[in-house]
Amino acid sequence: MNSREIRSKFLTFFKEKEHKIVPSAPLVMKDDPTLLFVNAGMNPFKEFFLGIARAEHPRVADTQKCLRVSGKHNDLEEVGRDTYHHTLFEMLGNWSFGDYFKAETIAWAWEFLTEVCGISKDQLYVTVFEGSEDEDKLEMDQEAYDHWKKILPESRILMGSKKDNFWEMGDQGPCGPCSEIHVDIRPEAERKANPGAELVNRDHPQVVEIWNLVFMQYNRKADGSLEPLPEKHIDTGMGFERLCMVLQGVSSSYDSDLFVPIIREIETISGVSYGKAEDTDIAIRVIADHIRAVSFAIADGQLPGNTGAGYVIRRILRRAIRYGFSFLGMHSPFMFKLVDVLTRIMGEAFPELKAQRQLIVNVIREEENSFLKTLEQGLSLLDQTLKGTQGKTLDGEKAFELYDTFGFPIDLTSLILRERGYSLDQAGFEKSMQAQKDRSKAASEINRDDWVQVHQGEGSQFLGYDTLEAEARLI
Ligand code: ATP
Ligand code: MG
Ligand code: MG
Ligand code: MG
Predict the structure, then answer these.
(1) Across all residues in the chain, what is the average pLDDT?
(2) What does each C-alpha distance from 316 to 12, 88, 176, 182, 367 come to in angstroms?
(3) Same domain, 300 and 319
(4) 212 in contact with ligand 1, CB cutoff 6 A
(5) How many angstroms separate the alpha carbon of residue 227 from the centre of ligand 2?
(6) Which of 4, 332, 425, 426 could join 396 via S-S bond, C-beta 3.0 to 4.6 A?
(7) C-beta of 181 in contact with ligand 1 (< 6 A)
(8) At which of 233, 253, 273 does a domain end?
(9) Does the interface predicted TM-score (ipTM) exceed 0.90?
């Protein structure tokens, strides 16, 4: 089954169970200040879960674009190193707003995976919340356990801790116990020799979590306490790339048809083959991943910038550019050339990619041009500095210079340092950053009464008093 068919099987399955199929919300939700990016399928429905708004349809299903690069859900460090975490991914979900609850959710998830997708029952494990003894004092989820017991042997139902089996979106908001489904895709002989149950939730690349069934029962308040939600809801999220990996019989989501054409294109452009060495493979995976995140963000109106969500996108793009530069020898813009192949793969399901194609290409090419101008100099400054450094820590002031003069986001500097076996003087970096903010603030105060004139072509434009302040780059 190709990815298009898999996506459509999911949506059709739930449509037949009377769900309304809705399009993905944009990655950036302008009206939710608690969230930089949508990081789970449930985000756009938060108000229904909280009881602030009423859903028109009590049952909904969709595929939601998610980005996990900041805040509570940040997978950036894993991406490219492992084979199943992405920055941007699709989360397939079915929802019940005060309608069905645990019985249907569990039965349907099982039906979809085993009957529609044909995954062997012997490869599946599920987890159930075991309860908690901390200040929340939550009980074990007996109800979910009993539903699972009707379907599969007890040896395949595992107890899970709060960390894995109590889902919370952030520090506040709707939350509840969850049951997760894991798939063991190791070869049969290996599966027989060593039971997969022991590998669940152990970051094993081939015993992976695929679907999270969340039973929304509580709201976490600002003071940290839990209150029951007025109505109970269902929120499920299944990693689409992981499902494609399983159904296409490959052991990495980068080997599914969602990524292979992008990887082929990177190989063509760089002349470096995938599957030859660990460091170039990581670079290729990072680039194949990051082009998706950056393109979708731009398509949804979030351009790279100096603050907030824009700076997160810039960091992701610069990270990919640096991987290409250092490991694949890409010293001129190349990321923008991947937009077409991405649009071919995903443009049908996400027409915004097609509609914004030219903008995406232009913005990425511009960003590449500007960062590549300073990247080489910055890297050589870093190497020289490290040569003269005693010990294994880079001075915070130097890291600040890389940030300020060469445009190196601090997480990029940390990453490069780690590769070289060094660490970063984070406190020193922050001190330099603060000093610069103080300086530019003082400068803008001095200039308060001056008109700033900037000549642009024929006319001249008033940019206001606070230009310096606005230009001071913030993290
Ligand atoms: P993991 O433990 O693998 O990091 P998670 O428990 O953080 O996943 P959930 O918040 O439960 O993930 O999200 C629901 C589903 O979304 C997961 O079961 C998984 O299939 C998928 N998923 C989560 N994070 C990613 C990611 N970074 N890339 C691809 N798929 C993901
Ligand atoms: Mg995670
Ligand atoms: Mg998990
Ligand atoms: Mg999970």
Answers:
(1) 91
(2) 34, 11, 31, 29, 11
(3) yes
(4) yes
(5) 25
(6) 425
(7) no
(8) 253
(9) yes
